[in-house]
Structure prediction request, 854 residues.
Amino acid sequence: MKKALFWTVIAAILLFNYNLETKVLEDIQIITATGYDYVDKDTLRGTTDAPFYPQGQDVKPINASFTASGHTIHNIRQQNQREAQRNLGAGRLQSFLINKEVAKHGVKHLIDPLGRSTYIGRDIKLAVVDGSTEKLLTADYSNSQVTSRYLSDLLEESISRLAPETELHTFLAQLDGFGQEPFLPIIKQRDDHIRYMGLALFKDDKYVDELSVQDGYTFKMLHEKFKHGIYEIKYKNAYIAIENLQSKVQYSVSGTAAKPRVTIYVTLRGKVQEGYGLTLHTKAKVHAVEKEWRKEMTTKAEKLIRKLQTLRTDSLGVGERVRSHFRHFPKSSWENLYPNVPIHVEVETNIVNTGIIE
Amino acid sequence: MIKRNRPGPVAFKRSDVGKLISQCSESADFMSFKLDEDSPFYISYFQTLVDQNIVHQDVLSILKGSKFTSLEEIKDAVHVENIMLTTDVSSIQQRVMLGNILIYKQEAQPSCLLISASKMEKRQISIPETEYSVVGPKEAFVESLDTNINLIRKRIPIPDFQVKELTVGKLSKTRVAVAYIKGIADEENVNTVIQRINDINYDQLIDTSFISQMIADNGNSPFPQLVDTERPDRTASVLMEGKVAILVDGSPSALTGPTALVEFFSAYEDYLIVWSLGSVFRLIRLFAVTFSVLSTPLYVAILTYHYEVIPQDLLTALVSSRGGIPFPPILEAIVLELTIELLREAGARLPTKVGQTIGIVGGIVIGTAAVQAGLTSNVLLIVVALSALASFTTPVYQVSNAIRLIRFPFLLFAQLLGLLGVAVCSAMVLAHLFKLTSLGRPFLEPVYPLRLTDMKDALVRLPFNRQATRPLFMHPQNVLKLQQHSSQKDSKDIDE
Prediction:
């Protein structure tokens, strides 16, 4: 009897107290990309890409975008809802674009709702747009049916091979963490394509400067281990393209808490892909190329680090490494310390293959 | 259902033999006649139960050949295996009903002679139908208890293999055999089984599945708590592990217990192929069952509540297949699941040839037509068909029925609470399984309670040299499977 009563109560609670809002897949217009442009200090102009799937079998999604102005992201979304035929759902958001002008004024208030939301994945890609995000998101591109799909593929598949990996999770960690500054890829609409333009450097949450595509690649080499891309070096009036087979990086901190010294050890393994007019059939000749490669990478890396130090932006996260090396490291001193910390780069290069003709 | 009033022992009187005869005479197949005019003996038997050869060659020819005056003389003269002289009317009745020839004197003589001449129709031993395996023995149990015990005994030719016989069923008087190996099987298990079978109070017992339901620890659970097998090799094998087997006359299967859930996923074939392959196949079966239970509920939960978890590349396929379908995912899923159940029921009831046609009609025609008519999405059709297929991978047929059933509460919870509902329902099923016992032994052993030594033959099957001990789960009296190497040699080597 007691048992029956228990189950009746459970069933009653389930049935009568039941007011979960269903989000049936085909009744949701799924937002896949959003971008924000600068209007004035308090106002943003937000564009939302939410492809529409017409009814029927084997149908192709149709580009659909909505633009509205507002102070907060959610207000803008509500404004967008005024035009959308179905309930807009942000759960599958993949690309989040920030106009350069917005980035210069600070992105904290834009990123905050992303961090709070439980619906949004931590792996969505952020990017800074050189130009209007509205134009970029509403344009038609010849190489893709759906704009947002092109954008997310570009950010996930292409740019992640050229630029250091960033996603919402790392951006939030860099924004809040000590001794590290966020960075994002810059993209630009160019004719009927979207193009990767380099790396945007942030100081706190504000855009300060950018790195070229080449420097962005060097930055990636100093930031993480990876294995794709090409290093191009000049050797004896010829250009050599070396495929990156493996690139490892290791930070070593020495000195004292007041005078830390940082050495970055980079190990590169490569394979010569192009080198017209070069014969590399002896070890000595390969060593010579390796040496040239080492020299060039060291110069590039050190120049990049000087630039970062001059900008006083610690995008490589050196501060965090120094802090974790010394016990009770005085955090407040790092701001002034950073521009003058000696950071050396030690590159070790190794060419394992020069192709099948030699 | 079980009738509570137990009949008391009936007091038979001598005159009841006459009553018995007259009662039986009402049946057309009962023969009762005087041997000849001057003979004092009467002969009675059921024509349909006796072997005519024995009646004519071994009994009537001898009786007619010489003059007998007493039943003792006949008993000495007839050379048939089982002859009994008795006055006990209840045993007379019982044996007549089993095909004995009754010989008695009309006069007040109380004793009767019973000559066994029973003819039992039985099927030839055939190959296993539901537990077929490509390699290994191809014998299956038949409906005769003696044949079945014979099939087991020839695999365990030791005196320790013992069979206790009970009679169950007020009307059916079914012979039930409890088989075990003394010295290995736990006495407690044997006693539990015998006691529970003795406690059965019902008028008929047609098959082992009756016993399986009547002596189950939890009769309301959809999960069977005794393994029902039609393979004598499997039965013999588990007997040697220390289990108890129950065989019923008239049933082509044996029940073995105590059992655990993992045993329902082990096919006997697992032992006939290399251990690595056997283990992989067993894991595939486990995966298949999980898939079968969870795939449709997950489809409903995700499409109703959690579009966020659908990968980008699948999204287009799902949206375009769902687009234009007039039902919410739950209705779509329930309708399709019911269609599959319909096909299954129809296929099972129809003769084999027609059943196949129904399968094709249902699978191809209805499925494709439903998708083209825009009633279901083709993604769900694949999911439901696959999960139906996966539920058939269990080697023990009863479990696949349980899997069929528990899918529906999962669907309901998926609709009510989404993924949380699936989790809640899983928790409830798990709690039920944790509580379940088989002959008083935990059903989820060796996972819970965790017994690492029994893991060697649970989710995976390790090679035979790792299977040195019998499962602790059954509390075997003799744990070691491998024989201890004796330190002394029995005989000298040639070169010694």
User: Anything to note?
Assistant: Chain A has two domains: 23-211, 217-358. DSSP finds eleven helices and 14 strands in chain A. The domain at 217-358 of chain A is CATH 3.30.300.210 (GMP Synthetase; Chain A, domain 3).
